[in-house]
Design goal:
The structure is a homodimer. By secondary structure, the first copy, chain A, is mainly α. The first copy, chain A, folds into two domains: 1-88, Arc Repressor Mutant, subunit A (Orthogonal Bundle), CATH 1.10.10.10; 91-123, no CATH class. Chain A contains six helices and three strands; from the N terminus they run αβααββααα. Chain A has a three-stranded antiparallel beta sheet. Chain A starts with 7 loop residues before the first helix and ends with a helix. At the A-B interface, helix 1, helix 4, helix 5 and helix 6 of A face helix 1, helix 4, helix 5 and helix 6 of B. Chain A binds a DNA duplex through residues 7-10, 24-26, 35-39, 41-43, 45-46, 57, 60-62.
Chain lengths: 123, 123
DNA sequence: TGTAAACTACGAAGAGTTTCGTTGACAGCT
DNA sequence: AGCTGTCAACGAAACTCTTCGTAGTTTACA
């Protein structure tokens, strides 16, 4: 099972596609709002080659859509950063995240619920 | 304030240096336990150029030590992954981390304490 | 003194990523 | 038909990262 590891440019495309749903290069490019149109096109073609997006070529303006789930790819990205940066310690990762980003009260409570449920499975 | 973004190879060196303290190329290379000696050397020279490590050239075998704090770099790495992968949502990042890695009971409790203290600062 | 081992230094090769110029096809309009 | 704008496709160029071959220096020691 090889881990999927999009490049930064590819992440930007994928985020746009997850947000927009199936979309043309033009639409994705405008959602991103920066860089050259051809760069967006090229990256989307590369993503199609890699199978991370699928392309409907019916219309002249091809319609792309993400072929991978957002959560799954995020999970892979977390694995990467855990291994490379945190030596596998998820607790340390979360500590840094808490230090850097203030979470909304609602988010903190939801997080606590998640921890509760995980702790329930252990003991 | 430019964010420090070591490459994967550089992270490996830095992790070894944080673990060993000031060390020679040889020591770091053996700690890593893989790859070509010259690759380790080259990466450490690059790190020195970038200022992420400092080099004591007194002895023939130069002694390198990390010039940046582990926690600070981890924080930068978290910022990166938050922006690129999670659209800034630390809650989502932590959710993925919890799904992927089982934390020890002690870690879960420590995490809960951290959440408590952060929540205390709000409302 | 001669030789082997350990070390730094240099640079080139190869892969991967991103950017963008150019080309050719197609569609709409006058 | 001719003009204009939009599109996909291709490939070159620049850049980064990693690997490793080669060279030259220093140290240890017989």
């Amino acid at each position: 099972m090889t881990r999927i590891r999009p490049t930064p440019g590819e992440w930007e495309i994928l985020q746009a596609l997850w947000k927009l749903g199936p979309a043309t290069v033009r639409a994705v490019h405008e959602e991103i709002g920066a860089g050259h149109y051809n760069t967006t096109l090229k990256l989307m073609q590369i993503l199609a080659e890699k199978g991370l997006v699928v392309r409907d070529e019916e219309a002249r303006a091809h319609v792309y859509k993400a072929a991978v789930g957002r959560e799954a790819l995020q999970g892979d990205a977390v694995e990467d950063v855990l291994e490379r940066v945190f030596g596998g310690s998820a607790a340390e990762l979360m500590q840094r995240a808490l230090e850097r980003r203030k979470l909304k009260k609602r988010e903190l409570e939801e997080l606590r619920r998640m921890i509760d449920s995980f702790e329930g499975k252990k003991s």
